[in-house]
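Many introductory courses stop at the sequence. We go one step further.
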Amino acid sequence: MNVRDLPIVRTIYESGADDRVFDGLLLAGPFVVVLIAGLGRSFVTELLAVAYVGVFLGYVLYRGIRG
C-alpha cells in the first residue's frame, strides 16, 4: 500500500501544486494539532507549534521569492 492510495491524500496530491514539501506540510498540520491537543499545553508543544508554523511560513516565503 502506498500513501497516495489513501483517499484524502490522493485528493491533496492530485489537486496540489506538484510540490511534495508543501503537500507534506499540509498533511502534517492536522497531526500536529492532534498531538498538541493530546499532550496539552506545555513548553514542548508550544515549541512544536512555533516550529511547524515557522517552517510552513518559511517555505511559502521561499517559494514565493524563488518564483
